[in-house]
Specification:
Distance between the termini: 23 Å
Number of strands: 2
Strand order of the largest sheet: 1-2
Radius of gyration: 12 Å
Mean pLDDT: 91
Structural class: alpha+beta
Order of helices and strands: HEE
Helix content: 25-40%
Strand content: 15-25%
Length: 59
């Protein structure tokens, strides 16, 4: 299952997008196993994936 953010967040560069994706993944991990196994993807303006951060729930 996938959830797409239809509004998105505009960031200044790829480095900021990667950092933001990692923060979102960490926040989702706080919800326990609800998002375990999901990935947070960052894409550029053309829709090309520039980062994929896994949601890792601590054991």
């Amino acid at each position: 299952m996938a959830f797409e953010d239809e509004t998105g967040t505009v960031l200044p560069d790829a480095e900021a997008a990667i950092l933001y994706a990692s923060v979102i993944a960490a926040e989702l991990a706080q919800d326990g196993n609800e998002y375990h196994g999901f990935d947070v993807c960052a894409v550029d303006n053309d829709g090309n994936e520039i980062a994929r951060m896994p949601v890792l729930v601590p054991s």
